[in-house]
Amino acid sequence: MKKVLFTIVLSFIFISGIQAQGDFKFGVTGGLITSRINNQLSPLGINLANFTAVSGTGFYVGAISDVSLSEKFSIQPELTYANAGDLEYIQLPIMVKYYIIEGLYAQAGPQFSISTNADQIKDILDLVDAGDAVNSLGVDIGFGAGYDILDNLAVQARFSTELTNRYNGPGNSINQLKANNFILGVAYFF
Hints:
Elements: H1 2-19, E1 24-41, E2 49-68, E3 73-84, E4 87-101, E5 104-115, H2 118-124, E6 137-150, E7 153-162, E8 175-189
Antiparallel strand pairs: 1-2, 1-8, 2-3, 3-4, 4-5, 5-6, 6-7, 7-8
């Protein structure tokens, strides 16, 4: 957990350093999140089964910033809390935005996701072996689009899929737990 907090603090220090190089906006964000954890069974690299182990819909809220690098590019880090039924996360997406036309942008980038209730997820999935564990930290890749309605108001939609395996127990090379998230929200900049 100390490594995770260190990574978050380091990311914000990095973003603050970028702030001096371009226009900087700070604000709040929130909206709807749909999240699910997929369980994939793949012995010898052959996908035998893939099913949704846990899913939920709820909300996310948090802080957002936007650092303009040029007329077409900016970096948008966020720090959000998400609650989607049985799934709870603290998420740190760092999206690179590319403006296709004025107001309309595509975004993509990494997202660090910390499950705040990994032990509860272990119980929901009925992992009873002492060696079974659900990792609290995941690394995702996200992509989406958004539109600046006003200079200080934007809407965005984004999908993220996990690159890391949340399952850390016996047979974790065969059994993989990976989360997917879809958000639809607004951002207001001060």
